[in-house]
TrEMBL record:
It is found in: Membrane. It is a multi-pass membrane protein. Its EC number is 2.7.8.31. This is Undecaprenyl-phosphate glucose phosphotransferase.
Amino acid sequence: MIKDNQRYFNRIHVVIDAAVICVSYFLAWVYKFVILRDPPGLGFVLYMVALAGIVPLYLMLYLAFNMYTAKRVQGRRLEIGNIVKANAFGLLIVMAVFFLLREYNGYAYEYSRTMLFYFCVVNIVMEILVRNLIRICLRKIRKSGFNLRHIIFVGYSSAAEAFIDRIYANPQWGYRVCGILDDNKETGYTYKNVPVLGTTEELEQILENNRLDEIAITLALREYYKLKRIVAICEKSGVHTKFVPDYNDIIPTRPYTEDLLGLPVVNIRHVPLTNTFNMVCKRTVDIVGAVVAIILFSPVMLVTAILVKTTSKGPLIYKQERVGLHNQTFQMYKFRSMEVQSEKSEKKAWTVRNDPRVTAVGKVIRRTSIDELPQLFNILKGDMSLVGPRPERPFFVEKFREEIPRYMIKHQVRPGLTGWAQVNGFRGDTSIKKRIEYDLYYIENWTMGLDFKILFLTFFKGFVNKNAY
């Protein structure tokens, strides 16, 4: 729910920013050519047409400069700095484009550089005012009990007290502390109305019975021997986990930690794809790539569809429930490669070598990964990505989350049609633990370049799979 609220808020924020850009541009034009009465050179319409390119350019720059990051812990000075940098960079790009287009199709276009400078100044001022107004509104909304992030602390320490102090001093962050788990404080003990709920042994039960948005591990320094067990429980829950060390006076707060007004918060795991700009870039590549792939492979898919329908009875497309982003289930599409079977018998069975359920056509399309091509439509729907960890069925997710440490972390990104584990040979009947190691490497080291590398490698060693039965 919190993540959905953040996405909805970001959409509204984009619309507001687009309106601010348009109004700032219009005001700059009025000031330059109406109030100062300078000769415009070009008509009003041509100046306004340029907004069709300026608005999307500036919105992309705002993404690139982290202007849509949640405002819970982002300071005003940092946000103002990002506004200035994004607008300065945008001004340079727009002026460069206008310079290159000063003579186009036999006509001379003389855009006013002064007017563009006025636009830059007005837009910076208006963005700062609007975003501060949004901060004020968010603060009032969160004080009223809406748009809150529910957090629980594991361990009572000076770090826990410092975090709680900062939360109470900054209600605009929108945190609600649900309680503390500690082995040395009595249940019911409170610190600034935050109760101790029980011991750390009860952590798993509490996570199962409560809907939390974050976990903060705030163990006292003498209790760090418990850290490994607690981190394993937290990561198995799939809830975003932070580690707030109880020795913040001797470690730096940058570059590998968050800085909460001097309190270092070390995130248990860094996921680059939680950055909005990275998510937008990856999603754009997914959509364009899926459309191109559907067009290129349409003859292959047509032939496969005919062969599947004419050689065995049953549906053309096989739909199977898989677990994806944020532990949400979805229906993953494949060309049917097996005889039709009951849902109960199919649900818990791995495919083995020489499996009698696989059809003659199925053996070929499974070995060459042609059966996976309908997942291109899953990508267009937003269930999957071109590159990411392969999704598993709910039954196996429940099994592996108990057996394999850190397994659930793979659901912090969209599952993929191909992935780092797959191009390194870990497909089909191979080690799940090794697969997770490669998936975690991908999640923590994601770049657009790594995605393109994986797609490139897929063409050479990802399609044909000796372990696909």
